[in-house]
Amino acid sequence: MRRPDDWHVHLRDGPMLAAVVNYTARQFSRAIVMPNLVPPVTTIAAAEAYRMRIASALEPGADFTPLMTCYLTDDIDPAEVARGFTHNVFTACKMYPAHATTNSALGVTDFKKIYRVFEAMERIGMPLLLHGEVTDKQIDIFDREVAFIDRILTKLIADFPALKIVLEHVTTAEAVRFVEDSGPNLASTITPHHLEINRNAMFDGGLRPHFYCLPVAKREVHRLALRRAATSGNPKFFLGTDSAPHAVSNKESACGCAGIFNAPFAMESYAKTFEEEGALNRLEAFASENGPRFYGLPLNTTRIVLERTSSQVPDFIPAASTRIVPFHAGQTLAWRFAGHADADATSLVDETGSGSAS
Ligand code: NCD
Ligand code: ZN
């Protein structure tokens, strides 16, 4: 298949960046890199420096382009945002409602405060990526995505009809319906884990922190709606892993971090879903075509091979003097990312570089 891109990933920084980035770079050609570092990426200089650190952490010969994003704060400078986009440093802006998720304390407290930024983005065609959850303590955590759509997104679309918006990591049937019913400027990413688990996974025989992420997994009816959307062929839905690594000690804790690390077996996981739904013929559109088309970027011309042979997912992945529990830990998956194919897909180059027929 055409090589895929990941339109939402957390690559972290420092030793953790070095430990995780090559899992993403191996499978994906490009990735939209989330800016929720400490401190967040809010300037062109910070994004360029982060891009350099990502490049330095790549294995030699890696063919991977990080697409940088700007973290929106209440006092972000619209001119800096626009300059970053026109100078090809920022591909998009990321909006976290303040305190919605990991490292979002400096996120936006009131949308009205950054309307000048949205105006600039709409004018220059810069996409806005939304963490679509309200943060009110009175709103049940399972209802926060729908409340975000009702209270914020509807108004945002009405006020900025030409703004390209990605409602990221959708988790509910209502969000799927809303995206389907909206115009062409609204699209969504869907993660492997929201296609695979429902909220029971967090409570299966005991508290299971490695299935906790934000937005939190919902009821089975929502998982089924996500699977229908992802495998439908609708160009408004595309791949975004939201791979979000946390050291095991930060997950298995009295106050465990949100985030699921799915990068090491991301394509294997999506292939599982698409096969189960009888939609393997639509995996390429979801993984490799719908995203670049929405962003107005060229499709990748290189190809990868997914083999229908088993992969054993380890219980732990060593990382930065600690360990991370990957998604599907301990499971055997029926697919294997087998490496890159040449342009006409007649030969296959595996990870070690030795060729074999595909
Ligand atoms: C992400 C993280 O750890 O940075 N966590 C998560 O559960 N997805 C933040 C985010 O995307 O919400
Ligand atoms: Zn995320």
3D structure, described in words:
The protein has helices at 14-27, 44-57, 78-86, 115-124, 144-159, 173-181, 192-196, 220-230, 248-251, 266-276, 283-295; strands at 6-9, 30-33, 65-71, 90-95, 128-130, 165-167, 186-190, 237-239, 303-307, 311-312, 317-319, 322-324, 332-333, 336-341, 347-349, 355-357. It is of the alpha/beta class. The chain has a single domain, classed as Metal-dependent hydrolases (TIM Barrel). An eight-stranded parallel sheet has the order 1-2-3-4-5-6-7-8. Helix 3 packs parallel to helix 4. The longest helix is centred in the middle third of the chain and has 16 residues, at 144-159. It is globular, with a radius of gyration of 19 Å. Mean pLDDT is 95; it is low at 350-358. The structure holds N-carbamoyl-L-aspartate (NCD) and zinc ion. N-carbamoyl-L-aspartate binds at residues 10, 36, 101-103, 131, 213-214, 242, 244, 258-259.
In short:
The protein is an alpha/beta fold and 358 residues long. The chain is 32% helix and 17% strand.
Quickly list its features.
disordered C terminus, 358 residues, four-stranded antiparallel β-sheet, 16 strands, binds zinc ion, TIM Barrel, eight-stranded parallel β-sheet, binds N-carbamoyl-L-aspartate, alpha/beta
